[in-house]
Amino acid sequence: MARAAGAGRGSTVDEGRVQEFLERVITDGGAAVAGLCTSLGDRLGLYSAMAGAGPLTSAQLAQRTGLVERYVREWLAAQVAGEYVTHTPATDTYELPDEHAAVLADPGAPTYAAGFFTMLQALYATEESLMEAFRTGEGVGWEEHGPALFDGTAKFFRPGYRAALVPEWLTALDGVVQKLERGALVADVGCGYGYSTTLMAQAFPRSHFQGFDFHRPSVEAARGIAAEQGLDDRVGFEVATAQDFPGEDFDLITFFDCLHDIGDPGGALRHAEHALADGGTCMIVEPNASANVAENANPVGRAITAASVAVCLPSALAQHGPQALGNHAGEEALRDIADEAGLHHWRLAAQSPVNRVYAVGR
After folding, report:
1. 279 vs 251, 273, 345, CA distance in Å?
2. What span, in angstroms and rounded, lies between the C-alpha atoms of 325 and 129?
């Protein structure tokens, strides 16, 4: 045992553990830099060009993608180092395993996760603003981030919503699917690009859906997506906050991964309670993270809590509301806020490794 630089007076450290932790930090640093390569591979179509193609040389991949071979070759070297891509020295060819393609190359797959890396561009760009926020207690608003955050967030959540929203989450809500099949009125609060809204609309053609978000560029993007899908006759999007969105007698009001980003979550749920039809339901989808910080010491918990530092908590603080929850406030805190808002019936309806789904009503 020996004293390490920076250790407290008289303290000793295990040098073996120091080296183990140093290796972990270097690994994390490498992953952080490699995340840029992952984002490039996704956005430039490199992964999709490799998916199902078998072994390719760097020149063949460059030809498939219309990119410069020298850059492609360097990118492939990084992919091999990260064990995302395999390399056969005898033929100097590279291959994306099918199992890896399911995560990196197919936006329609429920396992697609490359969208997470799109967000990195925007997150790192706000580091200076976050440093100032740490010193002053002010926030960093959602709208202060670059477009990569909005695109990446929508891209990241869409596969999970597509896989679970209709077949699992909505069916776990008592009587809601039957109402939607007959024809219901739905408000999707904090809808972003509206993927959650349009997925429900596609599944339930007799129902009408209204998406609300305070971020105008996202609302405009959502309108374009709905029009492309031919849904704009019964799907609309408006710029509005969670505390003042218009309409009433909604059979279903949804909050997809956004309630914790709101500076006044209690006000949002009070407004939802007033806007619900008799017998209506709120569906609140939140990250699957714990208020007990030790329980988040796992890959999903680490990603969720880090995102709260970078985006969720600063976004809520920027609204100068009475509460800034962060994205791991926990079920008990959320349930208490709902109860105070007049939504006394609370039930955990479904969950996934990433999300917890709550059914809430009067």
Report:
1. 7, 11, 11
2. 20
Closest CA to 355 of 157, 60, 134: 157
Find the helix or strand (DSSP H, E) in which 281 lies. Answer: strand 276-287
What average pLDDT does range 59-84 have in this prediction?
98
Angle in degrees, 0-180, between the axes of helices 69-81 and 58-65, rounded to the nearest 10: 120
Mean pLDDT, all residues of the chain: 95
Neighbours of 320 (CB within 10 A): 11
Q: What share of the chain is helix, strand, coil (3-state, %, to 5)?
A: 50, 15, 30
DSSP assignment of 146-187 equals -HHHHHHHHHHHHHHHHHHIIIIIGGGSTTHHHHHHH--EEE
- Beta-ladder partners of 237: 211
CB 132, CB 122: distance < 8 Å: no
* Residues above pLDDT 70, as percent of the chain: 97
- Whether the full predicted model's pTM is greater than 0.70, yes or no, is yes
Q: Name all contacts of 290-293 with Cβ < 8 Å and 24+ positions apart.
A: 290/328, 290/330, 291/328, 291/329, 291/330, 291/332, 291/333, 292/330, 293/328
Separation of alpha carbons 123 and 22, rounded Å: 25
Task: With H, G, I as helix, E, B as strand and everything else as coil, classify residue 84.
Answer: coil
Angstrom distance (rounded) from CA 317 to CA 323: 8
Q: What mean pLDDT comes out for the span 127-141?
A: 97
Residues 6+ apart with CB under 8 A from 191: 197, 211, 212, 213, 218, 219, 222, 237, 256
DSSP class per residue in 318-342: TTT-S----TT--HHHHHHHHHHTT
Q: Which residue has the tokens 């009503």?
A: 361
Tokens of 167: 């077949």
Cα 258 to Cα 187: distance, rounded to the nearest angstrom: 14
Question: How confident is the model over 306-330, as a mean pLDDT?
Answer: 96
Q: What is the DSSP string of 20-47?
A: HHHHHHHHHHHHHHHHHHHHHHHHTTHH
CB 44 within 8 A of CB 65: yes
